[in-house]
């Protein structure tokens, strides 16, 4: 099999972030590339930081472009928003771009569930987000900062969703944190209930699908980052968090090439739209006072640029009610 016969996500990325975040924990140290929309000298008026997480193609540059397009369309001052896009590289990216030995890299998609990097240190993608938020959500660096948004589409939405449940999050005094979760393939269920073909919650068939309750679909066998976590308290914290789910109304292809079609994922529904609707209903049943919001985006399928640039996407990311101008669904930027 040649390089070009491989799936798109198993080919080296076209571009690597031009900034570098050092992540240091007792387990080791590594560097993650990232992009940002402005430099430190422009930080005085920043009131919102948006951390945007790329999908399975690891195309952080495309996601930065999508976020910039969405911000340009928003009826808000772009100088008050800092965009950050970290990049979770695969092992193949290191050699293809001649990157330094201290660059963190994962198995192709293991970063989506918070697994540890395969080198140079066993650090989780959640450790990376902890470090990014700690370094940037800092009122000493950004005195006007009031909001941090952690958002993702597709594979990035899987990271944002799971980090919202188990991650350290933003602890800076006076700074509000919101999570925006757009079109993920799967969600974390806190018990064995799953939707049947009619969307009615019933106990999952563990004989037919033994791993249905395992991470990243359930809470059993969670990765090292959360191995000592108590999910009862984490669920309560998650239910109380500011979370917006964005679902493309046309993201309903059960055979989409990037859709997780494993047994555990299929137990959540036939496609992303159904899975998102069912998960939101599941949480509402478990938490009747749930304040999470679920917004559907008409006319949009599995397209990151179109989701983020929609009225609903701009409102979720930037807290504004309208667009200064409409972004066409075919706009350049992230797709997967």
Automatic annotation (TrEMBL):
SUPFAM superfamilies attached to this UniProt entry: alpha/beta-Hydrolases (SSF53474)
InterPro entries the record matches? AB_hydrolase_fold
Protein name (record):
Putative exported protein
Give the source species: Caballeronia sordidicola
């Amino acid at each position: 099999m040649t390089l070009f016969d491989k799936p798109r996500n198993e080919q080296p990325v076209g571009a690597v972030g031009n900034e570098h975040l050092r992540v240091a924990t007792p387990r080791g140290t590594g560097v993650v590339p990232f992009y940002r929309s402005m430099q430190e000298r422009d930080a005085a008026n920043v009131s919102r930081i948006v951390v945007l997480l790329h999908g399975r193609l690891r195309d952080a540059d495309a996601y930065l472009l999508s976020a910039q397009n969405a911000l340009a369309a928003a009826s808000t001052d772009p100088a008050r928003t800092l965009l950050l896009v970290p990049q979770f590289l695969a092992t193949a990216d290191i050699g293809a771009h001649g990157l330094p030995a201290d660059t963190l890299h994962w198995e192709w998609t293991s970063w989506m569930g918070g697994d540890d990097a395969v080198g140079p240190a066993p650090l989780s993608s959640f450790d990376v987000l902890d470090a990014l938020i700690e370094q940037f959500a800092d009122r000493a660096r950004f005195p006007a900062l009031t909001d941090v948004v952690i958002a993702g589409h597709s594979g990035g939405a899987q990271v944002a969703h799971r980090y919202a449940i188990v991650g350290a999050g933003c602890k800076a005094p006076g700074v509000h944190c919101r999570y925006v979760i757009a079109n993920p393939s799967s969600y974390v269920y806190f018990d064995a209930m799953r939707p049947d073909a009619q969307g009615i919650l019933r106990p999952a068939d563990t004989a037919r699908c033994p791993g249905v309750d395992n991470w990243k679909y359930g809470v059993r066998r969670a990765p090292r980052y959360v191995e000592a976590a108590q999910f009862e308290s984490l669920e309560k914290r998650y239910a109380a968090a500011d979370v917006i789910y964005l679902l493309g109304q046309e993201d309903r292809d059960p055979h989409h090439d990037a859709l997780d079609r494993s047994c555990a994922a299929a137990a959540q529904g036939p496609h992303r739209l159904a899975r998102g609707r069912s998960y939101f209903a599941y949480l509402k049943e478990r938490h009747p006072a749930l304040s999470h919001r679920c917004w559907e985006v008409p006319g949009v399928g599995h397209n990151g640029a179109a989701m983020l640039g929609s009225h609903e996407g701009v409102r979720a990311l930037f807290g504004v009610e309208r667009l200064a101008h409409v972004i066409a669904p075919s706009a350049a930027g992230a797709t997967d």
